[in-house]
Specification:
CATH topology of the largest domain: Lipocalin
Structural class: alpha+beta
Shape: globular
Distance between the termini: 54 Å
CATH class of the largest domain: Mainly Beta
Order of helices and strands: HHHHHHEHEEEEEHEEE
CATH architecture of the largest domain: Beta Barrel
């Protein structure tokens, strides 16, 4: 059986052939990454996951062509081969999920390239160039606590039910898992949630305890709020719009 390296055009052709989506890349890319570990690497220090995330982000941010999938995956695989070479397969898979989720959270260029290479219909979620004008009043924003049922849609269409109180934001996912974050108002229609814990496979890798997200309720419609979210402290300064249904 011929093994295909991720760092070759053949390996990249397989990625394109299967039309992989950004948030579903982990398992398929991970399998291809294993093929690139046959090279012998000596006398180099294994980087920690967080420093590796920073190094990958720095490297992909220097790429000139966002459409060059070969250069992109060669860059990513170049960092990962050494890091994975001394791990068991199960540990490698867990590490890759953490790395790719943290990159999508904290590295604007990495996330942008994935969206560009593997475009998909993200439903309610839209990248924004700037903050929309504020249309919701303080009264309308604070009414969010009056609704017994709140929910939002994942990019794949799954419904996430939201338990919201004056102190906590709790996501309840389709598979029965949850995420718990603290909640506090910052301004009339702006609040901040801080990650506490999660047993959801994606969310517990996306966020670490203490990670913060800033949300603004921009406009209240008949059955939902228009919301803008921003990752606090990531340096990406990326704004994303979505809807919270009531």
């Amino acid at each position: 059986m011929e093994l295909v390296s991720l760092t070759t055009p053949t390996g990249l052709a397989i990625l394109k052939q299967h039309n992989l989506k950004p948030l579903n890349l982990m398992r398929s890319i991970f399998c291809l990454l294993l093929f690139s570990l046959s090279q012998s690497v000596f006398a180099q220090k294994i980087e920690t996951k967080d420093s590796l995330v920073n190094e990958i982000c720095k490297s992909v941010s220097e790429l000139e062509d966002m459409n060059d999938s070969t250069a992109f995956w060669e860059t990513v695989a170049g960092h990962l081969s050494l890091y994975f070479s001394k791990m068991e397969p199960k540990t490698q898979e867990q590490a890759w999920l953490y790395i790719t989720m943290r990159l999508q959270r904290n590295c604007k260029q990495y996330a942008a390239i994935l969206r560009n290479l593997y475009p998909e219909n993200n439903g309610d979620w839209k990248a924004l160039d700037s903050m929309p004008p504020q249309k919701a009043s303080k009264t309308e924003c604070r009414q969010i606590f009056e609704y017994k049922t709140l929910a939002y849609l994942e990019s794949n269409g799954d419904t996430v039910h939201l338990d919201l109180s004056k102190d906590y934001w709790i996501d309840r996912f389709k598979d029965g898992t949850y995420s718990k974050l603290s909640f506090r108002w910052l301004r009339e229609c702006e609040f901040e949630i801080m990650f506490i814990e999660s047993n959801n496979r994606i969310r517990k890798n996306l966020s670490k305890p203490g990670d913060k997200y800033r949300y603004t309720l921009v406009e209240k419609k008949e059955h939902y709020y228009e919301v803008v979210s921003e990752v606090v402290g990531s340096g990406s300064n990326e704004l994303t719009g979505f809807k919270i249904y009531f």
